[in-house]
Amino acid sequence: MVRCVPTIALTVLALATLGGCGGTGAREADASEASEFFERHLVADDMGAACGALAPSTRSELEESEQKTCPEALAAEKLPEGGTVRKVNVYGRQALVQVEGDTLFLSQFAEGWKIVAAGCHPEAGKPYQCTVKGG
């Protein structure tokens, strides 16, 4: 099931990327680590742990749209294998992490960075299209 990430968030990230602004090294490292955790558990087929890396609204939307528990719904989405982190852009409490086979969007919560969208790919002149995303 393909869904769009909200245009405003992507526009802000795109403009910040073009402007060359970035986050601090520690925040980039933390966002990268959260992405690697998510990807590692997807590859290991540990969907329970991968679901723990999702933002609350993303997890809720996934469960509601699939009418399954998060681990069952996430497995059914068949997200691409992400691989190694290639680029991290952090802007405020938002991050875009590009891995070899995927693009992830994250937000910073009190408990750390969480995945708000995964299975994302760009479309010319449009926001990223994401397989998994929150509302």
Descriptive report:
A hairpin with a 2-residue loop joins β5 (112-123) and β6 (126-133). This protein has five helices and six strands, in the order βαααααβββββ. It has helices spanning 7-19, 25-43, 47-52, 56-66, 70-77; strands spanning 3-4, 85-91, 94-99, 102-109, 112-123, 126-133. It has a six-stranded antiparallel beta sheet with strand order 1-6-5-4-3-2. Residues 1-23 have low confidence and may be disordered. It has a single domain, classed as Roll (Nuclear Transport Factor 2, Chain: A), CATH 3.10.450.
Overall mean pLDDT stands at 85
How are the strands of the largest sheet arranged?
1-6-5-4-3-2
Per DSSP E runs of 2 or more residues, the count of β-strands stands at 6
User: For the record, what CATH class applies?
Assistant: Alpha Beta
User: How would you name the oligomeric state of the polypeptide chains in this document?
Assistant: single chain
Give the structural class.
alpha+beta
- Approximately what portion of the residues adopt beta-strand conformation? 25-35%
What percentage of residues falls in helices of 4 or more residues? 40-55%
Distance between the termini: 14 Å
CATH architecture: Roll
Which fold does the CATH topology refer to? Nuclear Transport Factor 2, Chain: A
Number of helices: 5
- How is the biggest beta sheet arranged? 6 strands, antiparallel
Order of helices and strands: EHHHHHEEEEE
Low-pLDDT segments, ≥5 res: 1-23
